[in-house]
Amino acid sequence: MPKPETYAHAILHMIQQGETPKEAVSRVHKALEAKGRVGLMLQVAHAFRRLAQKDADKNRSLLTVAREKDEHAARNAAGAKDADVILDPTLIGGWTLEDKGMRTDASWKRSLLSIYQAATRT
User: Fold this and answer.
1) Model pTM?
2) N or C: which end of the chain has fewer CB within 10 A?
3) Contact of 46 with 52, CB cutoff 8 Å
4) Among 58, 82, 100, residue at a domain's last position
5) Is residue 31 domain-shared with residue 44, that is, in the same domain?
6) In whole angstroms, what is the distance from residue 84 CA to residue 99 CA?
7) How far is 15 from 20, CA to CA, in rounded Å?
8) 3-state DSSP call for residue 94?
9) pLDDT tens digit string along 4-44?
């Protein structure tokens, strides 16, 4: 039997092919109804929410900086003029960029962890 994630993928695919969300959900609901599995709709909804968020994150640019004053320099260094920006004080300094599923880490935190790991290796 297909899992709720399978139905969620089907809904997303139908929407990407041009169906309205209402039509896509209705088709999946009818398919579940025909199989006597309408009780899965809530699980399908949760799976779809996770899948849609993952898809949205994949198509989004996110620049993370340690302090507000680092934003301008980080945008220039990363070439991320249109990226959304969030502050993460655990970075200490530098920046990270997540763009189209790729992550670039130019943070001090990563550099310091690398130095620490190299120094403690025996």
Assistant:
1) 0.56
2) C
3) no
4) 58
5) yes
6) 10
7) 6
8) strand
9) 999 999 999 999 899 999 999 999 999 999 999 999 999 99
The CA distances from residue 58 to 13, 55, 101, 121, in Å, are 16, 5, 5, 35
pLDDT digits (tens, 9 = 90+) for 87-99: 999 988 999 999 8
Q: How many helices (H) and strands (E) does the chain have?
A: 5, 4
Residues 6+ apart with CB under 8 A from 21: 11, 15
Domain of 78 in residue numbering reads as 61-120
Same domain assignment for residues 115 and 69: yes
Distances (CA, A) of 28 to 9, 17, 53: 11, 15, 20
Give the C-alpha separation, 95 to 87, whole Å: 10
